[in-house]
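Kindly go through the following sequence and its backbone structure tokens. Advise at your convenience whether the structure tokens fit the sequence:

___
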Amino acid sequence: MLGKHDIKDSIGYVTLGLFANALIDELLEAGSHPESPPENKPMIELAVDSIDAFENADSVSRPGFEELVFQDYQEARALRKMFRSRGATFDSASSLRDSLKKIVEANVSKETRKDNIHMAIIFFCKLGREAIIDAECSEEQIPPGVIRFAVKRNSK
């Protein structure tokens, strides 16, 4: 894994894959008791806050910015790609955010919560998988010839 290039070239994708995995764990826990909002929900809340910031960057306070997801180029790129993919569970950030909010709200029926948990798990499984694939096949990777040229030029 990550055999041909340095992990620094793909850190946003790796971070997103790890986040998706942690969020899926929380969603699975919430799915085991869908009759009430999940008690442990920091990753779901982080996802909601991050999607809010993704949609409206002006609303983000700088001290909390570094804790958010989808603010890095690679993370944002992967999220946009998911919304455009065929058969996407969600077609926009707002529909994803609204679904995650229904999972944690108190006045939501068991069936609605279960449906939203299920859709979110599918979405984040695909997002995590795509992020790991993109980490291995990063389009942002600098070609080796350019790196050699830059190293030779800077060593003079």
